[in-house]
What does this fold into?
Amino acid sequence: MPRPRTVNRKIPDLPRGMRKVGAVWYWRGTDSLTKEIEAKLREAGLRMRCGTTPVQARVWWEKHVSPALVAAVPDDDVVGTVEEVIRKYEADELPTIKRDATRKEYEGRIRRLRLKFKAKRYAKTEVQAMLPGYLSAVVITQHLHENRDRAASANKDIQLLSRMFRLARVRWGLTTFNPCDGIEYLPETPRDQYVSDERYAEIYGVASPVLQCMLEISTQTGAREGMIFDIRIGDFNEAQIELRVTKKRNDKGYITKAYSMTPDLWQALTRALELRKKNRGGAASLPSDYLFITKQGKPYGKEAFKTLWGAVRKKLGLQPREITFHDMRAKAASDSDSDVSAQELLHHEDVKVTKRVYRRKIPTGTPLPSAIGGRGNS
It folds into this structure.
């Protein structure tokens, strides 16, 4: 049975968290605040059954949930501050993010923004923004420069804050001014770590058999670790392999990138298939089954992969950011014949991104002949 929706599109005025199961409406929390309220209501012995009609559901919510929200978010403390905008975003936008990893990332950014700006008052208009005491572009820029040691992350924090204020302006009607407009973001220096063939051989030599297969796939195709985790048995044959690129989404949630099969790539894939058979459930496989599974028969994820990569770091004595698995993607780009071929391999829309971020090998050139006697006479 499909999971019931938490928002009824035909009745958009119902509070978020309302869902209909059969003929009955139920409510559940959708963010940290409302989940806490739900837990307290359940502890008090209250059922989340709201009634059989939208009107009854609304009345139930107004009776039980609304007072708890008012008590948890007193207007005197919140209205007119950045905390009001953050809470509005948490209630309206954060639950709509489908990918768990993205939602957790945003929750972390919200915690940092709340720590720094929650008590700051925001200007309702551009004229008001010129008065002292309101959050301004100058205050935000100063915060960025205080965090210039983590430039990329700090920039993304403020980009999220800007997104909140855009919603506050065009959707929630809280203000007509976005204090993030005109911000001078911190310059971001691309990572320049290039993994040489000799260094790669060292990493490959101490890696587990499963990680060796992943390394070979990444350095030959430029695939990210998430793309490798997502390879299914039916995705490859002796002619080609198709990888899912979730960074570029369509109605399926990904686009497909096809690569011609090579002997080296085929060797890595077939070896991974043989290793798979040693794990629970790995002997009986379907085309839709994942190629890489743990000993417990579960698909690889970030936590399981950390164990594999952590063992490599420990054996080679690597610092946390000295060499990352993502550097293998950069090695594939750097070892390509040209910028265009690297762009095609990594599936970038703009070759500038490929050149700036992923082409890390130091270029070499041939010295000119001596100028004594004139080069033209040589």
